[in-house]
Amino acid sequence: MRRRDTILLAALLLLLRSGPALRAAEGEPLTLSEAVREARDRNPEIQMLRQQLQSARARAKQAPYLEDPELVLQFGGIPLSNPTSLNRADSNTFGIRQKFPFFGKLGLKEKIALQEVKIMEEEARAKEREIISKVKMTYADLFMAQKAIEILREQLEIMRSLIRATEARYQVGRVTQQDVFKALLEQSEVMNQLIVAEEERRASEVRLNALLSRPPQTPIELPPELDVPDLSLPRSSLEETALANRPELRGAEQGIERAQRVYDLADKNRKFPDFMVGWDYWWMPTDEMAKNRYGAMVNISIPFSPWTLGRHNYEVEEALAENRAAKAGRDAVRNMTLKEIGESWAKVQAGKRSVELYRQGLLSQAELSFRAAMAAYQTGRVEFVSLLEAQRALREARMGYFKSLVSLAQNFADLERAVGQEIP
User: Which residues have C-beta within 8 Å of that of residue 41, sequence separation ≥ 6?
Assistant: First the structure.
């Protein structure tokens, strides 16, 4: 029996070191960089904003053009007795009209349209950063589920070996039946955790496929390791970068400039008139002395008339309020940016320390504790419950390490979103 116990111990330790390799699907693993690139190219939300941006650019190019000219056809003095005889009309008029805004108004409209394009460009950049952040977080969730399945399957194999050994020891009276029940109960707990982990893996696959615009049930295989960049920049440097480059802030600045142009245009509309210029050709078939004549006209709007001045004043008031709102929105985005960077930076720093703690001691200590408990159990120096506790502690330590690693990766992705660009 002692020889068989030694062989069992060696087999369990070998299983602990290697573990079964889990493969979610056939083919090459999907790396994080490939997932990000695929999201940029195929994500429907990003594609929608890109098409809307193209629409806005085309709309902005329309701004400097004048309105369509108008053709005028007018027939006057046609006898009712012969309503289709234009030759008996007193005058037939053929003309053209063209509206001209006051000098500078078209230029302001063009600048407003260009500012709207710049705002949409920043919105598209912000959406892309948001989608990339979601891809990285979902990728990390899928990695965690994959590792949890690997660990739990490995632990399940260990538990099955322990159950066989405990049953054999029970048959010869070296342990009680209660130890067998405890081992079976622990096995059921591991199996339940495995079911939850497999369900989480399927859910993470569906979420990641949606972000990559793939069919929901497409299987995804991930590499065995999760690479997390090392954050070496101080928080002050990240804040400076965010204040200069974050798309939401740049879009808010463009919004302020647009609001100022809207105010300038409203002020011009209140003070300066618009024009309509026209030229007419008159044909008078009944006047033999002067059949052919022409006429010219200039219409001038009166924006400061008593019955329209109020509307223009309210347009100016509206533009001023929009300007103040744009500045307040910019300040709100700035404060939010600094808050998000501070929170994410602190979480990343804490995550780095947690991962290092697992790597430098906790994992090896948990493994050594399990080995010692196994050896002591084989010699009868500890109870079976101590072995189960050591085995559970090892499982929790390995799970804790990967949870810390995944949390670090997700907090880093959130920090990049707050900064508005990839962090080198």
Answer: none
User: Token pair of 325, please?
Assistant: 């709102």
Q: What is the CA radius of gyration of the chain?
A: 38
**257 alpha-carbon distance from chain centroid:** 26
- For the chain, domain boundaries: 2-246+273-311+339-419
DSSP state of 74: E
Question: For residue 318, which amino acid is it?
Answer: E
pLDDT in tens, 231-290: 888 899 999 999 999 999 999 999 999 999 999 999 999 999 999 999 999 888 776 666
Answer yes or no: is pLDDT of 97 > 70.
Answer: yes
* Single pTM value for the model: 0.82
With b for 16 or more beta-carbon neighbours within 10 A and e for fewer, the 293-331 pattern comes to eeeeeeeebebeeeeeeeebeebbeebbebbeebbebbe
Distance between CA atoms of residues 112 and 50, nearest Å: 20
Cα 13 to Cα 228: distance, rounded to the nearest angstrom: 29
Q: Quick one: pLDDT band at residue 181, thresholds 50, 70, 90?
A: confident
Give the containing element (helix H, strand E) for 76. strand 70-76
What's the half-sphere exposure (Cβ side, CA atoms, 13 Å) at 57? 8
CATH class of 2-246+273-311+339-419: mainly alpha
